[in-house]
Each structure stands twice: as C-alpha cells, then as structure tokens.
Amino acid sequence: MALEQTLSIIKPDAVKRDLIGRILARFEAEGFRIVAAKMLHLSEAQAQGFYAEHEGKAFFAGLVDYMTSAPIMVTVLEKENAIGDYRTLIGATNPEEAAPGTIRRDFALSKTQNSVHGSDGPSSAEREIAYFFAESEICPRD
Ligand code: RTP
Ligand code: MG
C-alpha cells in the first residue's frame, strides 16, 4: 500500500480541555507520523473556507462559530493508507455512534464538538493540507 498524507485537526473542544498531548500520542501509537504541525486560531473566513463543502447546511453557522471559539492544532499525518486508517481511528461524526476505542468515542462532547477532524479522501487531503501548510513546512522523514 502507498504512503499517504492526511490532514488532522484537534478541534477547539479538545484544545480547551488540554487534550492535545493525549490525542497526538494516540496518533503516534497507531503508527501515524507527524510530518507538520501548527497551532492557530481560525478567523471566521478561514473556518468558512475550510468547511466550504458544508455551506448552506443547517449546521454550517454553528460549525463556524465552534471552529472559531478557541485555537486548534493542525497536523499532517503520514502512514500507509493514512486517510482511511485515520478516519477509522477517529470514528463516526457523532460520538454516540462512534465505535469503542475511537478518539471521538473517548473524547468528543457532541456531534458538533467532536474533538478531531480528518480528510475524507485523497482530493480533500490534498486541498486541506495545502489550505494550512506551505510545502516547505512539511517535513517527511525516510
Ligand atoms: P470532519 O470533516 O470535521 O472530519 O467531520 P466528518 O467528516 O465526520 O463530518 P462532516 O459531515 O464533514 O461534518 C463536518 C463537521 O461539522 C460538524 N457537524 N455538526 N450538528 C450536526 O448535525 C453536525 N453535523 C456535522 C461536526 O463538527 C463535523 O465533524
Ligand atoms: Mg468531513
């Protein structure tokens, strides 16, 4: 299987509860290598742009409010089959439906405040990585 990169966000609810270290440790324990990282506080325009695919949906305004409510930690994770394996690791959008042992089941507060984001396919991974990182900020190892 090919080495892939995916975009992960540790979302405001998890940052506010000081869960960054515990969540990053879960990524590494599951074989994901952190090849880029930054912390930032999204503006409204940045949050709207990142989640543009959801514009017009009932939850969009609440999602933007939530994503701008506190800082986030954005990372690029590398692994064979990173995109699919990361979605499996975080679990379903709604923590009540997320499988036991997934990050959302363990940490998320609600369907909106669900602690982590992950790219949902190769084209979104490419777009989302470029949304936050210049190529020079990504540091793959051998
Ligand atoms: P994400 O993009 O953040 O990784 O989450 P996802 O693919 O599992 O879910 P998606 O459908 O892309 O929704 C994006 C984020 O919007 C919030 N949401 N709230 N209250 C609601 O009905 C609702 N639905 C979605 C969540 O924060 C979700 O992760
Ligand atoms: Mg999504």
From TrEMBL:
Gene Ontology molecular functions: ATP binding; metal ion binding; nucleoside diphosphate kinase activity
GO annotation, cellular component aspect: cytoplasm
Superkingdom of the source species: Bacteria
Cofactor: Mg(2+)
CDD domains linked to this entry: NDPk_I
Reaction it catalyzes: a ribonucleoside 5'-diphosphate + ATP = a ribonucleoside 5'-triphosphate + ADP; a 2'-deoxyribonucleoside 5'-diphosphate + ATP = a 2'-deoxyribonucleoside 5'-triphosphate + ADP
Region forming the signal peptide: none
Residues annotated to bind ATP: 11, 59, 87, 93, 104, 114
Keywords for the protein's UniProt record, in alphabetical order: ATP-binding, Cytoplasm, Kinase, Magnesium, Metal-binding, Nucleotide metabolism, Nucleotide-binding, Phosphoprotein, Transferase
Gene3D superfamilies: Nucleoside diphosphate kinase-like domain
EC number in record: 2.7.4.6
Record: active site: 117
Keyword ATP-binding annotated: yes
Compartment(s): Cytoplasm
SUPFAM superfamilies for this protein: Nucleoside diphosphate kinase, NDK (SSF54919)
Domain Nucleoside diphosphate kinase-like, first and last residues per copy: 3-140
GO terms of biological process kind: CTP biosynthetic process; GTP biosynthetic process; UTP biosynthetic process
InterPro entries, alphabetized: NDK-like_dom, NDK-like_dom_sf, Nucleoside_diP_kinase, Nucleoside_diP_kinase_AS
Similarity section: Belongs to the NDK family.
Functional description taken from the UniProt entry: Major role in the synthesis of nucleoside triphosphates other than ATP. The ATP gamma phosphate is transferred to the NDP beta phosphate via a ping-pong mechanism, using a phosphorylated active-site intermediate.
NCBIfam families: PRK00668.1 (NF001908)
Name this protein carries in UniProt: Nucleoside diphosphate kinase
